[in-house]
Design a protein that fits this description.
A hairpin with a 5-residue loop joins strand 7 and strand 8. The protein folds into two domains: 191 residues, inorganic pyrophosphatase (n-terminal core); 126 residues, Diaminopimelate Epimerase, Chain A, domain 1, CATH 3.10.310.30. The longest helix is centred in the N-terminal third of the chain and has 16 residues. The protein has a six-stranded parallel sheet, covered by helices on one side. By secondary structure, it is of the alpha/beta class. 37% of the residues lie in helices and 20% in strands. The structure holds guanosine-5'-monophosphate and manganese (II) ion. The site of guanosine-5'-monophosphate has 14 residues, from strand 11 and strand 12.
Length: 323
């Protein structure tokens, strides 16, 4: 922590980035850290490779997040947030890699400890929780805008205080953020209260796609590009859908296979997929994702793969033999 504070104080212009296809924690950590560094009179660039999902566009200063970077020499330091691997920042990866001080701030147990300085706490509920600690250590003030981001990051990464990463700090910090002016109902309405019709129709297709292994311990959902086209939805509309597959009685591991929009298509049978995994708490899905080259947390993990849909589905169903 001390070394990070020294480096932040020394830097004039910092590049802040979080993972592509961002979730609530990735966006909130980026915004909270950026707004706090503003208060310390730092020049900051907030970068994310992907468009911001509609449900997070209410966040204060969200328009500050850009999808391009200057050349590496522009920046004295990079703060990489919520990324288990530096390549998760997406397109700016090559620029980031050349920045002289790379600070890795994350809570993924599979973080590969990239960068020059690491602040990794797998026991933290969210990266937003770690960002909160860092802001406090920097003695930066927490205003309503910063509080709204921190609260949103904790709320979304803990699945509304339901997932196993929900800890005492999640409640304590959230309470402090509410004291700083956050309106929980307002945040909840934006994040969970309003869905596009397309998103509801996508949910319908996802539910309809559920398959269960013979022993009933593994469920698989499948989302294809045709389904996104039919419903006019985006990958951001998939957020949370896997939890329906996870909730099925007796299911220990749920998988969601999602065809990638810009996936490899050298043959129509070979496509790029993202696979999300969730566990009921008795199985370490980060280890399963790791075996496929991905990572995450023990109860929520993922990986990318290029193979035919039929082979992928059969490999996933086969995992049920070990459950
Ligand atoms: P999701 O299933 O929501 O995409 O991701 C669940 C968790 O797994 C997140 O913590 C995320 O960071 C991690 N994860 C998802 N996909 C990948 C991946 O392709 N590589 C790695 N290393 N982690 C991933
Ligand atoms: Mn996170």
């Amino acid at each position: 922590m001390d070394e990070i504070i020294t480096q932040i104080k020394k830097a004039q212009h910092l590049l802040l980035a979080s993972h592509c296809d961002p979730d609530g924690d990735a966006i909130s950590s980026l915004l909270a850290m950026g707004l706090a560094l503003d208060k310390l009179n730092k020049k900051v660039t907030l970068y994310n490779a992907s468009p911001i999902p509609a449900v997070y566009r209410f966040l204060p200063a969200v328009e500050r997040i850009v999808r391009h970077t200057e050349k590496a020499a522009t920046y004295d330091a990079a703060l990489i947030l919520d990324c288990g691997h530096v390549s998760r920042v997406g397109e700016a990866y090559s620029v980031v890699s050349q920045i002289p001080v790379i600070i890795n701030i994350d809570h993924h147990i599979t973080n590969n400890r990239f960068g020059h300085i690491q602040l990794i706490d797998p026991d933290a509920s969210s990266t937003a929780e770690i960002v909160y600690r860092l802001i406090k250590a920097l003695n930066a003030p927490i205003n309503k805008a910063i509080a709204t981001s921190i609260y949103t990051g904790i709320l979304t990464d803990t699945g509304s205080f339901r997932f196993s990463n929900t800890n005492q700090a999640a409640f304590a910090i959230s309470q402090e953020m509410v004291q700083n002016g956050v309106k929980p109902y307002n945040v909840a309405q934006h994040v969970f209260g309003t869905y596009s019709l397309g998103r509801i129709k996508l949910l319908n297709l996802a539910l309809d796609s559920i398959e269960i292994s013979d022993n009933g311990k593994l469920s698989v959902m499948t989302l294809t590009n045709a389904m996104f086209e039919e419903t006019g939805t985006q990958p951001e509309d998939v957020d949370g859908i896997i939890n329906y597959a996870r909730r099925i009685e007796d299911v220990k591991v749920a998988a969601l296979i999602q065809e990638q929009k810009n996936g490899g298509t050298n043959s129509d049978k070979l496509r790029n997929f993202h696979v999300s995994l969730r566990s009921d708490g008795t199985v370490d899905v980060a280890a399963i994702a790791g075996a496929f080259g991905g990572g995450g947390h023990s109860n929520a993990a993922g990986f990318q793969v290029e193979m035919s849909m039929a082979k992928l589905k059969s490999e996933i169903i086969t995992l049920s033999n070990d459950l």
